[in-house]
Amino acid sequence: MLSPRFLLLRSTASLTSRSFSRGAVLRQGKAPDMAEGNPLLHVSNVRNRLREIVGASRNWSDHQQAMADRVSLSNMLAKSQSDLPQKRMKDSIVEAHLPLGSNPELREKYLTFHNTVRFGRILEDLDSLAVLISYTHTHNPALKKSPLSLVTALVDKIDMKQHTIYPDCDIKFTGHVTWVGKTSIEAKMHMSQYQNGAYSPILDATFVMVARDPENKRAAYVNSLKPEGPEEEKMFQDGEDNKVRRVELSTASLLKVAPTDEERKIVHGLFLNTLDTKTVSFRSRHLPTNSVWMEDAKLKGLEICHPEERNIFNRIFGGFLMRKAYELGWANACSFGGCRPSLVAVDDILFQKPVEIGSLLLLSSQVCYTQGNHIQVRVHSEVFDPLTRQHNTTNVFHFTFISDRDVPNIIPMTYGESMLYLDGKRHFNQTVDS
Fold this sequence. Notes:
The chain is an alpha+beta fold. The chain has two domains: 8-250, Thiol Ester Dehydrase, Chain A (Roll), CATH 3.10.129; 261-433, Hotdog Thioesterase (Thiol Ester Dehydrase, Chain A), CATH 3.10.129. It is built from nine helices and 14 strands. The strands form two sheets. It has a twelve-stranded antiparallel sheet. Strands 8-14 form a two-stranded parallel ribbon. Its main location: mitochondrion. It is found in: Mitochondrion.
């Protein structure tokens, strides 16, 4: 799962509240702990450790055999959650450093043409960090290899606190487990950047991971979580509330139930606004001023999934999928709005199926809702099998962007597009109006 970045990580048991303290003196965007040579673990060592934990091979030629060997680890799985020791939130704290201010060569991997940071790279690092946090929570020192396959199930939400991420200032990620079910783990992460002598918040992210057996076929139990103190109890309750909210949203999906009365009125109003008053015909549609048909606000892409982008379980790395979806969604929002948009939030990224090595991955982005200078983009990814001609949905991504000017109104023409419009409006309301 871990992305091949020069991300520096410092694991956790020894970390205390000082890990979240602010820096001292600004030196060209270099934080004191990075600029002064404090020992930090390099990401390559973390990747090696993860390979050791699951028994994965560094070489592609040996990788499949290494995964086959994991089958024997199934007897190490707990029969029930009560068989596993309870963990605390501080047991899973991880701090990770991305030294953009200290390492000019690293900066090239994260740099955009406009001298900002590629947010797709940040998504990859967040996904890697969520996996590491989850393995830290479930770590059993008595076992040489973990029998668990921990994979990303959902990106619940990413809220941007600052639109600009500077390419020449060091970045710090901190995070830990905040909620645990029987087979799932919620990890919250915070990203900050060293500016003017202190760390300033950039974003908050919530990921949901699921535990599977060594073959990644069946659910597996994870250690329960014991909150300590009012602050941790609130975090845990927020995790419970998030789970309930996700169930409610799934139940109310427009793919399952009809729109609400208010939503039906919105769709009918959009329809009436597009009727040609001269012909007064249901079949004669007219595009209002400063509007764009939804059909004309699409952008598509194709990725051939090579072994280079595999995770430690021999599937395509979830962070890679997020980066590609984000970059396509951003390009669509940029084309639609006529200027470079900034990300406001990432919401409800659902990983429905894993993507196998060698797959043909089709990505389709759609501007599905606009309001003022905000653009809501939905990216749908599916795997296409050229032999069977079958398409299978793997992921759905939702991104909210903001432009420096008002953008055209997006207008659905068909009933299906109207449902996309309402779904986009729901996600916009969750991220911007909430």
